[in-house]
Amino acid sequence: MKTKLPSLLPKISLLCLLGVIWSATLAAESQSVCDRVRALLPKVASVRGLPAPQRLGCEELSVAELEKVKRQQYAQSDGSSMLSYEELAYRAIGLVPDSFAYERCLVKGILPDLLATYEPSKRAILIPAGRPASDALLAHEIVHALQDRYVHIGVREKKLKSTDQSLGFYGLLEGDAVRIQAIFEQPQRVEGAKAEVGALTQNTESGECHLPESIARNFDFPYSFGALFVDRIVKGENGAARLGELMQKPPQTSSQILHRLWNPQWGRYSDKPISVPRAWRLPAGQVVYSDSLGEYMTGVLLSATATISRAEAILTGRGWLSDRLEVLRSKDATQVRWRTDWQSLAAAEHFQRNFIGRLSENYNIELNQDAAGLVASTAAGRWIGLGRRAESVLFIATNHSSTAYRK
Ligand SMILES: [Zn+2]
What spacing in Å lies between the alpha carbon of 140 and ligand 1's midpoint? Predict the structure, then answer.
């Protein structure tokens, strides 16, 4: 069902106030969820201080239809096979466990707990039929519709080049939405993010597609850290104006969300392909996928290691400067390359040490913790290499048979 808003917003606003009284006495249960969206729109627009759009789509969909829309979203931004390359890369560095079928399960894993979503390509709020969506949650999605009016979410999404850039962008948008959601949650105020995605880490319905912690934390970042970021901005000097500026020029990296004294020198996405030492005798290949994980997801990756505490992992991520993750294909080989750059030699060594720990667990082989340069063949017929030059750490995983592993 797609509904359109009449253009006489002031009248709607007045009716809406009356509607609150009616709904309490007469018609509470007869109001459809999209009627509630329409009734809430002017109120949310006024609280957020943005003009309400004249048209806002609203559709109730079955879970199967919703899955289709979400899958298209991934296909649109990444091309249809991108999730499979992402799976390959994330597995190689130990971010996603073998037990989780990333490509097949990523969307399926989100769906059981999805209560509402804003879809920029349709400029509509989509609601899975039969699931309870509170007014506060609908207010959250309406904020996205208001943002879309001047941020053009769909256009910007297509330009996002990396996981880290996405965390910066969505940290701003979700942080803003969570803040308004919290205002509508009174009197039974709960933590902002919980209603929309908090259950992702606890869901029981998704079964085999239950999201691993690393991915759940990726999805959670914009709601938790993003909310703190936006709160800090709004309560700071010229808060409203500063928020408006950020909407025009959104954060480019998770570091910008995390650090109050963020330095713009940190965290540039690098378009430059990774070069590897000649001695490693790796075949040239075509880059078919590239990403940048950023400070936050690098910390998440390390914290998946049993021998590294979450605190240690977060502190290791602190010295992050930039990184680039690639998948290359050639005629008979696939390679995953990951170069991380650090702010100091100490930070690079710190990361290298802990990353060796992560690799040891991921490949179930013993690796020398002190090795400055490291090569190993793994049980699955793979070859992995790790090297450091000054503040850069380079990791390679490949199935290439003639790669120069000599021992
Ligand atoms: Zn949201």
Answer: 6
What are phi and psi for residue 394, nearest 5 degrees? -120, 130
**Ligand 1 centroid vs 120 CA: distance in angstroms?**
12
Q: Quick one: 126 and 44 in the same domain?
A: yes
Measure CA 94 to chain center: 18
* Per-residue tokens: 372: 């400055």
Do 240 and 342 have their domain in common? no
> Which pLDDT value is given to residue 265?
77
| Residues near ion ligand 1 (Cβ under 5 Å) | 174, 177
Domain that holds residue 128: 9-258
User: 372 alpha carbon to ligand 1 midpoint, in Å?
Assistant: 43
Torsion angle (degrees, nearest 10) of CA 301, 304, 306, 311: 70
For residue 11, the model assigns a pLDDT of 25
The answer to whether 2 and 55 are in contact (CB under 8 A) is no
pLDDT value, residue 165: 94
- In the reported structure, the alpha carbon of residue 173 is separated from the centroid of ligand 1 by a whole-number distance in angstroms of 7
Q: What is the pLDDT of residue 8?
A: 27
> Which stretches in the chain have pLDDT values below 50?
1-28, 76, 78, 189-204, 405-407
Number of domains in the chain: 2
Q: Which pLDDT belongs to residue 81?
A: 65
Which residues contact residue 249 at a Cβ distance below 8 angstroms, ignoring those fewer than 6 apart?
none
Same domain for 253 and 339: no
Tell me, what's the pLDDT at 401? 66
Residue 41 lies in a domain: yes
Whether 240 maps to a domain, the answer reads yes
3-state secondary structure of 378: coil
Both 71 and 191 in one domain: the answer is yes
User: Ligand 1 centre and the CA of 193: distance in Å?
Assistant: 9
